[in-house]
Amino acid sequence: MPDASFLSWPFFEPRHREHALQLDRWAADALETVDHHAPDAACRTLVAVLGREGWLEATAPPPEQPEARVDVRTIALSRETLARHDGLADFAFAMQGLGAGPMSLFGSIEQRQEWVSLTRAGTAIAAFALTEAASGSDVAAITSTARRDGRGWVLDGEKTWISNGGLADVYVVFARTGEAPGAKGLSAFIVPAATPGLLVLERLHAMAPHPLARLRFDGCRLPQSALIGAAGDGFRIAMATLDVFRPTVGAAALGFARRALDEAVEVCRGRQRFGGALAQLQMVQAHLADMAVDIDASALLVYRAAWAKDTGAARVTREAAMAKLYATEAAQRVIDASVQLHGGEGVRSGHIVERLYREIRALRIYEGASDVQRVVIARAVLAGDGAA
Fold first, then answer.
1. Rounded distance between C-alpha atoms, residue 166 and residue 240, angstroms
2. Residue 69: its pLDDT value, please?
3. For residue 74, how far is the Cα from the chain centroid?
4. CB 168 within 8 A of CB 127
5. Per the residue annotation, which of 263, 329, 359, 367 is the catalytic one?
6. Among 260, 129, 122, which residue's Cα sits nearest to residue 193?
7. Which residues contact 114 (CB under 8 A, 6 or more apart)?
8. What is the per-residue pLDDT across 66-97, written as a single tens digit (0 to 9) for each?
9. Tag placement on the chain: N or C end, fewer CB within 10 Å?
10. Does the active-site annotation cover 359?
């Protein structure tokens, strides 16, 4: 049984503990047969299963309850639990939340009823289309445009490294509408996958298989109702959405790290070297101790950020950046140490720690690379911003 003592921390309510334990029991049985060699098919299946079993309800509040708020702690616990069992399951869950996030947080009741009801049920796959080739972490540099045309909009431009690209049923796309220079001139739009002019230019293949693509929007005509919020609100919508989901990236990293430590402890207890178990060597014990400290420190930062958001903080940019930065970097260290302790088996293709080694690397880049998080934290420190 993996360590669940952290669930007794004061960040959590009884419902959070019960959710995490139930999901863990379900995942142990349901995720053993996920085929990572066919990521598109696997993600479709995972979204459908997660929706059918009700787990995707955590990704967004019910559309018919406009006053309801997303529970970041539940999302984070879900991501940690799923990531510990299977990285692709975590991806499928997380992208439903992030893709629908702008709609669930800022959309009209009609937009939420049309799309969020489907993403929560697992009957529609969502995608968050923000990144461009020249504006990865610099959102204000987006060049895709949406111009007014009669009662609607015409969308042009390209996006790249879009998770669920080519697989999604609906995209939330950020484009320049020109109300002001830079970040203040962006807007967010709902773009169904069947929209004429939406083209999948290229499927992108990463070291850990996930559905990723480069997209083009070539004169896509959108109704006025496709606009989320008001024109010019796009940057605020994107950043507020990332405030919610960025700590949960740290939670996924935490899940990977916990699995890596569990695997390392098992192999060190059973592997015989120098006349005894590997676990008896002081240097090995030092590695395990460092791994355990990194994991607990990550968990404290991740769930501090989630708790702060859930208990009323308007923005948790600083806390979210700290959580993502530390947890993803720490997980890389933990997983690398686990590979080392496994010896040759740790780099054998298909071994669980080899898969974790490939899975963790992208988390230090997407939703704001580690160095960008350092910039965010430093600016907050220099501005004198304390914890939320």
1. 26
2. 87
3. 13
4. yes
5. 367
6. 129
7. none
8. 778 899 999 999 999 999 999 999 999 999 99
9. N
10. no
**Could you write out the three-class secondary structure of 322-341?**
HHHHHHHHHHHHHHHHHHHH
DSSP character string of 16-35: HHHHHHHHHHHHHHHSTT--
Pairing relation of β-strands 126-129 and 145-149?
A: unpaired
Bridge partner residues of 162 (DSSP) = 213
DSSP state of 279: G
373 with 321: CB under 8 angstroms?
yes
With a CB cutoff of 8 Å and minimum separation 6, the contacts of 243 are: 309, 315, 316, 317, 320
Q: How far apart are CA 61 and CA 74, in angstroms?
A: 12
- Residue 268, token pair as written in the block: 């060190």
Tokens standing for 350?
Answer: 């298909």
Q: Sort 200 into a burial class: Cβ within 10 Å, 0-12 / 13-18 / 19+.
A: middle
Q: What region, left, alpha or beta, does residue 109 occupy, with left being phi > 0 and alpha being psi -120 to 50 degrees?
A: alpha
Q: Give Cα separations from 65 to 50, 70, 74, 102, 112 (angstroms).
A: 22, 11, 18, 16, 10
Contacts of 218 (CB under 8 A, 6+ apart): 156, 197, 198, 199
Cα 17 from chain centroid? Answer: 21
**Alpha carbons 207 and 151: distance in angstroms, whole number:** 44
Output helix, strand, coil percentages for the chain, rounded to the nearest 5: 55, 15, 25
Confidence of residue 388 (pLDDT cuts 50, 70, 90): very low
Distance, in Å, from the CA atom of 128 to the CA atom of 197, rounded to the nearest integer, reads: 18
What DSSP string runs through 65-113? -TT----HHHHHHHHHHHHHH-HHHHHHHHHHHHHHHHHHHH--HHHII
CA distance 87 to 259: 11
Query: Which residue from 58, 33, 39, 35 is spatially nearest to 164, judged by alpha carbons?
Result: 39
Cα(48)–Cα(46) distance, rounded to whole angstroms?
5
Question: Helix, strand, or coil here: 272?
Answer: strand
Distance of CA 333 to the CA centre of its chain: 20
**For the CA atoms of the chain, what is the radius of gyration?**
21
pLDDT bucket at 243, cuts 50 / 70 / 90: confident
CA dist., res. 330 & res. 33, Å (int): 28
DSSP sequence for 194-238 = T-TTEEEEEE---SS---EEEEEEEEEEEEGGGEESSTT-HHHHH
